[in-house]
Specification:
The complex is a heterodimer of chains A (382) and B (198). Chain A has 382 residues and is mostly helical. Chain A has two domains: 191 residues, no CATH class; 87 residues, TolA/TonB C-terminal domain (2-Layer Sandwich). In chain A, a hairpin with a 4-residue loop joins strand 1 and strand 2. Chain A is elongated, with a radius of gyration of 30 Å. In chain A, 36% of the residues are buried. The N terminus of chain A is likely disordered. In chain B, helix 2 packs across helix 4, helix 5 runs antiparallel to helix 6 and helix 6 crosses helix 9. The C terminus of chain B is likely disordered. Chain B has a domain of 94 residues: RNA polymerase sigma factor, region 2, helix turn helix motif (Rna Polymerase Sigma Factor, Chain: A). Chain B is mostly helical. Classes of the chains: A mainly alpha (382), B mainly alpha (198). At the A-B interface, helix 1, helix 2, helix 3, helix 16 and strand 3 of A face helix 2, helix 3, helix 4, helix 5 and helix 6 of B.
């Protein structure tokens, strides 16, 4: 984090210079009259459409994910959909995929739990027909795993007889488990839409892991089992079936844990007893990154720019009509909220100063370790 | 009388109110000129580009549908015109003139005793190196940095001007700053202490 900050900070003098290049001295009225003199009636509609198009090519090393989200422009140069809409769609799509995968995986995990060796195999194991019935209902990614499970069932319990109660209970159990997972699914953190690090922007929509990919991971049932299911009820690693196939049920549980929760280290019992109790009460106080609450010493330049940029438009409205720019010192507290705004320059002492204070006070950055952080901002008239 | 918004001025100009467009010109010409000056580094070319920007904007008023801010729409025309000038002259001219008009503005401001940070010779030198560093950037990075860093547009507004997402603007600004910092350090302007962390 500090590396990122230091990689783009120019230093206070250079930053101040960059932000305070003055308007050159000119006879602006003469220039305006010269422009007015050129405005003839025949000009209307004569402007080349190319001048209204997006002006610049992408950088050679510009992240493609950022460029790929560029939205089409109308003739007037307006994006037809916002970045927020794209992010929202991406998150919704991801959540839907994860929920679907969780449902399918839980159905299979519940099936596997019914196959514990405590009961006689002929009673405990459902028939392949039952397994296939549930798997068919699940569909999608689960089909591959269900097929494997069917093969194992065929090998381990060839003489199995029909067990309709289990078949009836399985969908109910799966639905209950899915509902539990659904309600425990944390609301996605309000990830910043704008960041000065490209990877954070592309991380909004990571591709959902497929069951096949996850199944190759080494399963750790006690840590990764889905909440609400006792890992002990899952099949042992040394069941008569082959070890490779026997590991698929915990692997499914791993997929569920990864898809259904953002905190895989949480113990299942603790999480079930106190859902969400390990989260800070206020989402704004939650660290923006997912690296375990290690706060940066200070907010990054990009974060501060983004925070101030999001409220600067409102602040500019406050000084509309002023000739000279106003300056403000914005002090952020360690919780990322604005503690104090001090206005100087043209707006100082006027009612527009309190307006600027109110607008800039809406800025938010991620929490940081230092007690406070101040930054200078220039509010130029519209 | 309350001040008319850009949108109202555009609507009035569309109806043939040339005075309304004149108001729009006076409201935004300084920023457009400064933008063109930083892009073109030539006062005469910047003046021409500014005039041309408003003339072309007037010619395209019927195509402004009001879903973006008028000034970002005008900015886009200014950027396009400036880039056209740069592309036309690239084979012949790359060096920055000795009397860089951007620095001239800085010196005028300093002599007037304003709050400009360039209060001494070292800072004036910093301004010169800063301009050189910006000139060394690609057109894409330089234009984005000028819009955000110099002119103070938000990422969203710069995205409207450049026709790209806010995330792309943020990435470009970060890249531009990173390269600018390397340029400054190589010339002995190591970043000083961070701003006022308590």
């Amino acid at each position: 984090m500090n590396d990122r900050r230091s990689s783009s900070d120019l230093g206070s003098s250079a930053e101040a210079t960059l932000a305070a290049f003055p308007f050159p001295e000119r006879d602006w009225e003469r220039d305006a009259r010269a422009i007015e003199a050129r405005l003839g009636s025949g000009l209307r509609g004569s402007t080349d459409a190319a001048l209204l198009a997006a002006p610049l090519p992408s950088e050679a090393d510009e992240p493609s994910a950022l460029s790929a989200t560029a939205t089409p422009l109308t003739n007037s140069g307006v994006r037809t959909q916002s970045l927020a809409e794209l992010a929202r769609r991406s998150v919704e799509k991801k959540q839907a995929t994860e929920r679907q995968m969780a449902r399918e995986s839980l159905a299979l995990a519940a099936l596997a739990a019914q196959q514990r060796p405590k009961s006689p195999p002929s009673e405990a194991l459902p028939t392949p027909a039952n397994v296939n019935g549930v798997a068919a209902a699940s569909g999608g990614v689960a089909n591959q795993v269900a097929a494997n499970s069917t093969v194992r069932n065929n090998a381990a319990a060839a003489p199995a007889k029909p067990f309709p109660k289990v078949a009836l209970a399985l969908p109910a159990l799966a639905l209950a488990a899915a509902a539990l997972l659904w309600f425990r699914h944390p609301t996605p953190d309000p990830a910043p839409l704008v960041s000065n690090e490209p990877t954070t922007a592309t991380a909004v929509a990571p591709s959902a892991p497929t069951a096949n990919a996850v199944a190759h991971n080494e399963p750790t049932p006690t840590e990764n089992a889905p909440h609400g299911i006792d890992p002990n009820t899952l099949p042992d690693q040394d069941t008569p079936a082959s070890n490779a196939e026997a590991s698929k049920a915990p692997a499914v549980a791993t997929a569920v844990a990864k898809a259904g929760t953002s905190k895989p280290q949480t113990k299942p019992n603790q999480a079930a007893a106190n859902p969400g109790s390990d989260l800070p009460p206020d989402p704004a106080l939650r660290p923006a990154d997912s690296r375990g609450g290690e706060l940066p010493a200070k907010p990054t330049t990009g974060a501060v720019q983004a925070a101030l940029g999001s409220v600067m438009s409102g602040a500019r409205h406050c000084v509309a009509g002023d000739e000279a720019p106003s300056r403000a010192v914005v002090v952020f507290g360690s919780d990322g909220r604005v503690q104090q705004v001090t206005v100087s320059g043209a707006a100082a002492g006027k009612s527009s100063a309190s307006c600027i204070e109110a607008q800039l006070s809406r800025a938010r950055v991620q929490p940081f370790a230092a007690s406070s952080f101040s930054v200078n901002a220039t509010v130029r008239p519209e | 009388m309350s001040k008319r918004t850009d949108r109202e001025l555009v609507d009035a100009a569309r109806e043939g109110d040339s005075e309304a467009f004149g108001t729009l010109v006076r409201r935004h010409q300084q920023r457009i000129y400064r933008l063109a000056l930083h892009l073109l580094r030539d006062a005469a070319e910047a003046e021409d580009a500014t005039q041309e920007t408003f003339v072309r904007a007037y010619g395209a008023l019927d195509r402004f549908d009001g879903r973006s801010e008028a000034f970002t729409w005008i900015y886009r025309i200014a950027v396009n015109l400036s880039l056209n000038v740069i592309r036309a002259r690239k084979p012949n001219r790359k060096a920055v003139p000795a009397d860089d008009p951007r620095l001239e503005g800085v010196l005028v401001e300093t002599r007037a005793g304003s709050a400009s940070p360039l209060g001494d010779s070292e800072n004036r030198e910093l301004g010169r190196v800063l301009c050189e560093g910006m000139d060394a950037l690609s057109d894409t990075l330089r234009t984005t940095l000028i819009l955000v860093g110099v002119d103070g547009l938000s990422h969203a507004q710069a995205g409207e001007v450049l026709g790209c997402p806010e995330g792309t603007v943020a990435w470009r600004v970060h890249e531009a700053r990173k390269k600018l910092k390397v340029f400054l350090v190589e010339r002995g302007f190591a970043p000083q202490g961070e701003e006022g962390a308590a």
